[in-house]
Design a protein that fits this description.
Elements (H helix, E strand, L loop, with lengths): L6 H12 L4 E12 L4 E10 L2 E6 L8 E6 L4 E4 L1 E6 L8 H9 L3 E6 L2 H7 L1 H10 L6 E6 L18 H7 L5 E7 L2 H5 L3 H12 L3 E4 L6 H9 L4 E2 L5 H9 L3 E5 L7 H8 L8 E3 L5 H6 L3 H9 L5 H7 L2 H6 L16 E4 L7 E6 L2 E5 L2 E2 L35 E10 L5 E11 L2 E2 L8 E7 L9 E6 L7 E4 L8 E5 L2 H14 L2 E6 L2 E7 L11 H17 L24 E2 L7 E2 L4 E2 L14
Parallel strand pairs: 1-4, 1-5, 6-7, 7-8, 8-9, 9-10, 11-12, 12-13, 18-22
Antiparallel strand pairs: 1-2, 2-3, 5-14, 14-15, 15-16, 16-17, 18-19, 19-20, 21-22, 21-24, 23-24, 23-25, 25-26, 27-28, 28-29
Helix pairs in contact: 3-4, 5-7, 9-10, 12-13
């Protein structure tokens, strides 16, 4: 895939490369990262139009240029390319996201809009394409493959069949089928999933993967289906086995978890290999204060990976993987996406060029990013049934007394497992007043107009000591997920979400103590990242005061994956209080109980 350049424009580019006409910009005295050879060498870089015309040793040629930039010995790297992410996770719309990531040196992103697709269907995908039109950030798309993630075991606001995916694959700037999360369905030969993969292959698109902890024969079958990459690497065995089978590992570091310590030491021992780096999900405070793909490069380099090689993984390798033949390198004929970093260790971007235009100079944007969605009327997508406190109660199978219940146990790395715990029952239901200190109620409330009531279970590991915590950012069907110590606060938190059009709410003693409104599909704000980040930081402080533990993530995202039935091991959906991800089957909440309350 070559980006927009006519024969006439290429003729002028060749003339500039030969020195027959002046360059537009000459960047002098830089240390250039050559991603083909993984060297960092002194060089001059010449730009003509939106392309690189010249790369040369300093002083090798007489050069005529309309503008000369002193690189002052800084690092020059290709614009970073993120091969897999969800803009919705940043809680802002595409334009505000672009303004934030360009500042960190990311110039191209491959976006999976499956969060908004699960809420608004095709209209949501179309909105993200329209909302990213004309931005200085190059935004390319992967069409969601799993809406919902596991058909028949959860309900979302839409349902995509193979013909829907095939239609959207022809839309502008679409280059891939997004992460195929229903790996169990693929392995079982599910016609819907195989049909979606086939639509992507026939359209000549890359097929993204999502297969945490999938190994052995099941992984072989998944690869045989046509999957080409995977960003769900939890340990070294995952990464190495996928690499050896020809799946391109996307080594990720976002806001939700850090698996690099488990992955990189063993991966780095392999003599010769390439991976791509990605962010997947970055919440607004991290985006503002910590970085974007430059952060991933920085962290990967701590495991003995040469910085030039890590930058190759964040530019050339993703470009080659998606057949973006004129992106990902600083070389003649390539699109002039260039980042000047203050050094290979800190990788703080000082200047960013995108398509031959400076978009960041001296760490500041050159001009505001125009938002295509500004002024657009928003529809409240939070449509819930009439609810009462009784909807959050769990009936006891034995009446009153202690009963053994299966609960979801949230782990520090945000995976889950099932544990059996004795809980008290009074007046025919699980008694909230005497629950164990670390156990709370968890419920999924349908918010896409479904007629059925909430599903309710018990959860440990989130740390909540009082009140309730509710949100519409509940991957990936994005129903309302609420955790709480009592039904009254849970109900108040859910009702407030319906009033503000979605987002996050915290309630304590019937009082709203913090909220972040996300009125665009219950997922995004139309405010800048800095404004949303300030709201999130206030929310995080309030959540911590109620006991919510960080679990290696900001408190606000601690529970966002608990309704995602494709991440190990036990989850809750709007249809099943307890769902086994490995078997794709519901799990009973209670063991068989005797009259005296003991388990048989």
């Amino acid at each position: 895939m070559f980006h927009d350049i006519t024969v006439e424009a290429r003729r002028h580019l060749v003339a500039a490369a030969r020195g027959a006409r002046p360059l537009d910009v000459l960047i002098r005295d830089i240390r250039m990262v050559n991603v083909f050879t993984c060297e960092i060498r002194r060089a001059d870089i010449g730009v003509f139009g939106n392309r690189i015309a010249l790369v040369a040793d300093p002083g090798a040629f007489e050069i005529d240029a309309r503008a000369v930039v002193d690189g002052a010995g800084r690092i020059a790297a290709p614009g970073l390319i993120d091969p897999h992410l969800h803009i919705e996770s940043s809680m802002v719309d595409p334009a505000h996201y672009a303004a934030a990531v360009l500042r960190h040196g990311t110039t191209t992103v491959i976006v999976d809009p499956h969060e908004i697709a699960n809420v608004m269907g095709k209209d949501g995908v179309r909105l993200m394409i329209e909302g990213s039109e004309g931005l200085p950030l190059r935004v390319l798309f992967a069409i969601p493959s799993c809406v919902p993630a596991v058909l028949g075991h959860e309900t979302a606001g839409a349902r995509f069949a193979p013909e829907d995916v095939a239609e959207m694959l022809a839309w502008p700037r679409v280059i891939a089928v997004a992460e195929v999360m229903d790996y169990v369905g693929v392995g079982r030969g599910d016609p819907r999933m195989l049909g979606i993969i086939d639509a992507g292959i026939r359209a000549g698109k890359v097929i993204q993967g999502h297969a945490p902890a999938l190994v052995g024969r099941d992984l072989v079958a998944y690869k045989a289906a046509g999957i080409e990459n995977d960003h769900e690497l939890r340990n070294a065995r995952d990464a190495v086995e996928k690499l050896r089978l020809g799946l391109t590992p996307f080594v990720k570091l976002g806001s939700h978890a850090n698996h690099l310590p488990n992955v990189m030491p063993e991966l780095a021992k392999i003599p010769r290999f390439d991976v791509a780096l990605c962010t997947d999900d970055v919440e607004p405070s991290d985006l503002l204060h910590v970085g974007h793909l430059n952060r991933v490069v920085r962290e990967v380099a701590k495991y003995g990976i040469d910085p030039a090689r890590a930058l190759r993984w964040a530019s050339l390798i993703p470009a080659q993987h998606y057949n973006l033949r004129d992106l990902g390198a600083i070389a003649p004929g390539y699109v002039a996406d260039i980042v000047l970093f203050d050094g290979e260790d800190s990788l703080e971007a000082t200047d960013v060029m995108a398509g031959g235009r400076w978009v960041v100079r001296d760490g500041a944007p050159c001009e505001p990013v125009t938002d295509p969605l500004a002024g657009r009327a928003l529809v409240n997508t939070v449509r819930i049934n009439t609810l009462s406190e009784d909807d959050f109660a769990i009936p006891s199978p034995i009446g009153d007394g202690p009963v053994t219940a299966n609960i979801i146990a949230l782990q520090p790395n945000r995976t889950t497992r099932m544990e059996a715990t004795t809980v008290p029952a009074r007046n025919g239901r699980i008694d909230s007043d005497t629950l164990p200190a670390d156990v709370v109620f968890i419920a999924v409330v349908p918010r896409h107009g479904q007629a059925h009531p909430p599903s309710v279970a018990l959860l440990s590991g989130i740390g909540l000591q009082r009140g309730a915590f509710a949100h519409t950012v509940a991957h990936d069907s994005h129903n309302i997920l609420v955790t709480g110590k009592n039904s009254a606060d849970m109900l108040a938190a859910v009702r407030r979400l319906a009033e503000i059009g979605g987002g996050f709410t915290l309630v304590d003693g019937g009082r709203i103590v913090a909220e972040v409104a996300l009125p665009l599909a219950g997922l995004m704000s139309l405010k800048p990242v800095a404004d949303v980040s300030a709201e999130v930081e206030i929310f995080n402080a309030a959540a911590a005061s109620l006991g919510i533990r960080t679990l290696a993530t900001p408190p606000i995202v601690a529970g966002t994956g608990l309704a995602l039935p494709v991440v190990p091991q036990i989850r809750i959906t709007d249809l099943h209080p307890l769902f086994d991800v490995g078997t794709q089957e519901p799990v009973p909440m209670f063991a068989t109980a005797m009259a005296d309350g003991t388990a048989s």
